[in-house]
Design the sequence.
């Protein structure tokens, strides 16, 4: 049995050497946080939803979207992260996004440090020390790991709970570790619905080992949280309030913040509802389309997105460069998948089963733009699979070319690892010098608020400038329709909804009137936030009803415009 298939024995004579490695890991983990610790956590996009849900819980209103007219019950995100937000708001005695956001920033910093060490100690159980260390560095320098740690998002916390789960699971022969494993699996599912893959892998492992009593126990324990969350969703969706919403399209399946994942997944295209519901053929096609692209996206997860690789070449890099990047990332992803298959051929099985089940679940989702983000918590396990492949290649060479195996194997391994770390270092430098920027805007209390964020694009600057104007003009009780309603509510305190995704302008106008909407945002076609654009549905309404909507604000370039409903007051 090779070193990659058994738990590595703890080193006996390398404690000082390992201490240096741990200090280096700590330094790398801290480095990117130094400029960010003095500002609140980033609350854009989905982060706004988690914060709003936490506020609702802290105020005793239940699990509700406070940005929506009627404060409707939420069914998309599991509640653990909002519960954490609610605890902070209750202890601090405020729901101020700046005050609470600062404490959340520091908390996520601590989580990231613990996550970094947990990755190392997990990898050290399966890899020799000289491989566990660079594998840990690859995880820490992976672009999406530090991008997602900057936001109030569950990915990093989910990565921590799953990594700790597998650390505890290696000691599963002791009852206390079994209990810890279950608590961590429970927390994982409470953070992300895809945590069900962890339960499934836990059960499948016992089945493959023919430990049937253990399998039944794990199945019973797993059913409890799944039944509770899905039961809650069923309760909400069968309630009179759900069936009779405040406005006619409030629970439309394309309004992904307002409905469960199951309703969004079963649309052919959740951003274009006119394409209809997905059939079994559509879902199968989507699954295999995503699966085909999975090696490429796995290569991105372990390093960085292709557009980050291509940044030195600018946006007009040659087609040959794009092809080369596609090949490099796909080969890297195939090596990782090969490592997963090698792990399946040996024991323990649970990690490769978990990887494959997670990938299968992700392939069912219709949001290709989010695939890299969804895969990010797998980064430690993908790094383990990568080094499993590299070690297998060395073993294979020792059998085929016994004389040259050592030098060739070492050269290949060092070359692959060096390529990844050099590329990651370049992207890391670019991210912290050119891609991190300060968001400055007017808070509700009239003070200036500041955030440090990665990827603060011009479209978001334009939106925030428009929201500053809106805060001065809008009156309490007026409703805004735009592409990011939770963020608008958090910024302005105004109720905010998405515009109807309705291609018929007459129907769209009637749906807007059913709220009614006072301010309608037009964001140009290539203006996308969170992967969707609303211009194709807003533009026909404005063009067909010029007597109902008057333009009251525009950015200099006209990419963001605000229209007010005539006589809305």
Sequence:
């Amino acid at each position: 049995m090779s070193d990659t298939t058994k738990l590595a024995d703890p080193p006996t004579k390398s404690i000082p050497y390992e201490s240096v490695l741990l200090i280096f890991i700590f330094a790398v983990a801290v480095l990117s946080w130094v400029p960010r610790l003095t500002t609140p956590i980033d609350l854009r996009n989905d982060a706004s939803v988690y914060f709003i849900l936490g506020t609702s819980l802290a105020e005793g209103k239940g699990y509700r979207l406070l940005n929506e007219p009627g404060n409707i019950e939420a069914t998309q995100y599991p509640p653990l992260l909002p519960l954490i937000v609610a605890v902070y708001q209750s202890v601090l005695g405020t729901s101020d996004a700046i005050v609470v956001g600062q404490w959340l920033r520091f908390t996520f910093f601590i989580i990231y440090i613990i996550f970094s060490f947990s990755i190392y100690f997990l990898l050290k159980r399966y890899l020799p020390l000289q491989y566990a260390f660079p594998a840990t560095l690859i995880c820490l320098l992976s672009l999406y790991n530090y991008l997602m740690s900057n936001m109030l998002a569950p990915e990093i916390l989910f990565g921590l709970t799953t990594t700790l789960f597998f650390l505890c699971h290696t000691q599963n022969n002791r009852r206390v570790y079994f209990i810890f494993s279950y608590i961590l699996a429970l927390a994982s599912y409470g953070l992300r619905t895809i945590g069900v893959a962890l339960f499934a892998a836990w059960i499948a492992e016992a089945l493959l080992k023919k430990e049937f009593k253990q399998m039944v126990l794990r199945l019973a324990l797993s059913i409890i949280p799944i039944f509770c969350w899905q039961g809650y969703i069923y309760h909400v969706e069968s309630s009179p309030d759900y069936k009779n919403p405040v406005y006619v399209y409030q629970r439309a399946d394309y309004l992904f913040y307002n409905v469960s994942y199951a309703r969004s997944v079963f649309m052919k295209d959740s951003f274009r509802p006119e394409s209809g519901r997905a059939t079994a053929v559509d879902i199968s096609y989507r699954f295999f389309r995503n699966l085909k692209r999975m090696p490429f996206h796995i290569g991105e997860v372990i390093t960085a997105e292709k557009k980050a690789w291509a940044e030195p070449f600018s946006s007009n890099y040659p087609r040959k460069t794009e092809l080369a990047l596609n090949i490099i990332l796909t080969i890297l992803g195939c090596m990782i998948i090969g490592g997963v298959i090698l792990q399946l051929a040996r024991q323990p099985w649970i990690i490769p089963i978990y990887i494959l089940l997670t990938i299968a679940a992700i392939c069912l989702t219709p949001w290709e733009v989010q695939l890299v983000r969804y895969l990010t918590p797998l980064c430690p396990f993908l790094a383990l699979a990568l080094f499993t492949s590299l070690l297998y290649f060395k073993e294979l060479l020792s059998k085929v070319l016994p004389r040259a195996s050592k030098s060739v194997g070492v050269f290949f391994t060092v070359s692959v690892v060096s390529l990844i770390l050099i590329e990651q270092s370049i992207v890391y430098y670019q991210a912290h010098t050119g891609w991190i920027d300060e968001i400055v805007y007017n808070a509700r209390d009239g003070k200036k608020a500041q955030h440090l964020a990665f990827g603060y694009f011009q479209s978001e600057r334009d939106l925030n400038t428009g929201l500053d104007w809106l805060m001065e003009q809008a009156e309490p009780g007026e409703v805004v329709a735009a592409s990011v309603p939770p963020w608008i509510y958090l910024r302005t305190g105004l109720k905010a909804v998405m515009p109807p995704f309705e291609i018929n302008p007459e129907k769209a106008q009637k749906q807007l009137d059913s709220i009614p909407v006072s301010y309608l945002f037009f964001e140009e076609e290539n203006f996308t936030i969170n992967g969707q654009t609303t211009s194709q549905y807003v533009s026909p309404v404005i063009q067909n009803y010029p007597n109902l909507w008057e333009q009251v604000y525009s950015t200099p370039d006209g990419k963001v415009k605000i229209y007010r409903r005539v006589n809305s007051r």
About this structure: Residues 1-5, 10-14 have pLDDT under 50 and may be disordered. The first helix runs from residue 15 to 31. The two ends are 76 Å apart (CA to CA).
